[in-house]
Amino acid sequence: MYYKDILFDLDGTLTDPEAGITRSVAYALQQLGLASPPPAELCSFIGPPLDEEFQRRFKLDADQTRQAIGFYRERFRSLGIFENELLPGVPELLAQLRSQGCRLSVASSKPEIFVRRILDHFKLSSCFAVVTGSLLDGERRHKADVIAETLRRLARLPEQGAPVSTGAAPAGTAAAAAGVPERQTARAERLRQRAVMVGDRRHDIEGAHACGLKAIGLRLGFAEAGELEAAGADWIAADLPQLSQLLSSL
After folding, report:
1. Class of the 18-82 domain?
2. What is the DSSP letter of 11?
3. In this model, does residue 165 exceed pLDDT 70?
């Protein structure tokens, strides 16, 4: 197995959050005095940043969008967060990958405080070396930013299969001139080469590519027909057993 650092999206990849997210979106719209489509028609909110989807679907202005997100979180933090189901086979897949020497992380556009609560709820927190999400103030909400932060956190951990080194770059090198240890730069590049992102939406694929990673699209989630292909997924798995086989074969 070539890829030893595996980054997972959360919603639609490890869990099925449809009920909690769509009901919380419907609640937010109702609080704004807007008619809400049936929850089944709100699945487009699973994956992208909330502000972008509220504006795209309902043409909200900036102030309305802030209010909508506030109402959404009002319901989600107490009810919606647990209207969520672990996808069948996830614990077994994570255990298998760890037994094969893989280091696992979560990189989600959901606020990190919610990501951690969900992983705790499903007793999965111990499976992951790094857990990264967005911030409640709206920072780090784009997937590329979340993945970049995940890579930064991974780079601070002991390197997989190699001794830890803190040596500085030799004088006169480009890395030294930039104030960046050469070994640190080389290590970051090795990390990118041996890491792969797994997700169910185009945002996961595009975010991974923006950070120099390969990406696996997982059809278990909420992507529209052709979405993963159009986003340029390097590989596509139909389900978790196929994902396991794919990772083992790469």
Report:
1. mainly alpha
2. B
3. no
Task: Write the DSSP assignment of 60-122 as a string of letters.
Answer: --HHHHHHHHHHHHHHHTTTGGGS-EEPTTHHHHHHHHHHTT-EEEEEEEEEHHHHHHHHHHT
CATH among 3.30.300.30, 3.40.50.1000, 3.90.1150.10, 3.30.420.40 for 5-15+85-249: 3.40.50.1000
Residue 75: predicted pLDDT: 97
pLDDT tens column, 36-75: 999 889 999 998 889 999 999 999 999 999 999 999 999 9
Q: pTM of this prediction?
A: 0.86
How many degrees, rounded to 5, is the angle at CA 201 between CA 200 and CA 203?
135
Q: Is the pLDDT of residue 87 over 80?
A: yes
For 128-148, b/e burial (b = at least 16 CB within 10 A) is: bbbbbbbeeeeebbbbbbbbb
Mean pLDDT of 197-211: 97
What was the pLDDT predicted at 186? Answer: 83
Work out the burial of residue 117: count CB atoms within 10 Å of its CB; fewer than 13 is exposed, 13-18 middle, 19 or more buried: middle
9 is catalytic: yes
- pLDDT at residue 181 in the model: 56
- 153: closest CA among 116, 216, 106? 106
Residue 138 in tokens: 């709206």
Catalytic member of 9, 11, 16, 204:
9
> Judging by DSSP bridges, how do beta strands 103-111 and 214-218 pair with one another?
unpaired
User: Taking the domains of the chain in order of start, what are their residue ranges?
Assistant: 5-15+85-249, 18-82
Q: How far apart are CA 15 and CA 85, in angstroms?
A: 6
